Amino acid sequence: MSTPPQEKDRFRFLVVEPDEDLAREMMIVLERLDVQVDHVRGHLRALALSEDTEYNCLLVASRGIDISGLELCALVRAREARRSLPPVYIVLVGPEEDQVTVFTSSDDIDDYMLGTWMDLELEWKIKRGLRSMSLRREFGASRLLDAETGLMTPEGLRTFLHEEVNRIGRREGWLSMSILSVPGLGGLRVSYGEVWLEWFKGGIWSSLRRQLRNYDRLASMNNGFLCLISPDLNEEGTRFLLARLASVISEYQFQENTEPSTHVSLAARYLCVRVRGDYRQFGRTGDVLWGWLCEKMAEPMSLGIMGYTGTVDLNLQVAQTLFPKD
Fold first, then answer.
1. What are the pLDDT digits (tens) for 94-128?
2. Kind and range of the H or E element at 321?
3. Can you tell me the mean pLDDT for 313-319?
4. Is the pLDDT of residue 296 over 60?
5. Among 135, 240, 249, 290, which residue's CB has the most CB atoms within a 10 Å radius?
6. N- to C-terminal Cα separation, the chain
7. How far apart are CA 269 and CA 250, in angstroms?
8. Cβ neighbours of 230 (radius 10 Å)
9. What phi and psi values does residue 260 have, to the nearest 5 degrees?
10. Nearest C-alpha neighbor of 160 from the set 23, 297, 290, 14
11. Residue 300 CA, distance from chain mean position
12. Which helix (H) or strand (E) holds 37?
């Protein structure tokens, strides 16, 4: 199976392999496929090189002379998360005894190839990677951002949450998190169909995004909820923000011939906390807050806005506060 020329020309590969002979064999296969490719021996050197050159695929030896392939993968993924970069395609290459370690780790690799490999196997892995990279680019696929809606993915929001906990916690600042829902949309699906409902929801989400500050982050969760994280926002500010969003949603309506307007309302649960504790604990603190989001999303969401405020370190200490009625 041949590789389309336009596909090969769009991507650049980096071979990270301490063994010069193995690297040379890889380069021969890649050059035969007519793709752009560079080689570097050290894994840390590869990390530095990829700072200055945009590589779309990394072929990484699982064992390195400075750090391991998994450690390089973790550093690359952390950089992508920190800068909201599209994910690079990573293939680890190593002995069979490394398989268990690779596949039980939390690091996100795309493929693994056992040594000693054959040219045809490497060729197949490369072509598979090219197809995957083409799809990612064509459809804007990213682990952190849904290019179609402009909303963050759940993974992207979780990454952002941990980064903000680390930043805000060093000075004990405020962090606001909200779970948003528009109950009753299921009835619109029955009346108008799935396609119309998706269009209608897309308009609502766009209206909400326009009301946010440029450092707020809104994500579409897998269960249909939206989650909003607002750094440096206390409870009073959160109430004003949610009131503004509720007003936007209540005014969003649809008129179909002689049918009456369909009004929708916001349901929200928010949490405002001062982040405290030792910087060495902030990873656990972020997990605690993420756990609160998951717990509240598992509960039924009725109309209205309800909030909680308090502090968080290794534990969450909050009291419920009701949103004042107009």
1. 887 776 676 666 567 888 888 778 888 889 889 88
2. strand 316-322
3. 89
4. yes
5. 249
6. 67
7. 17
8. 24
9. -65, 155
10. 290
11. 25
12. strand 36-40
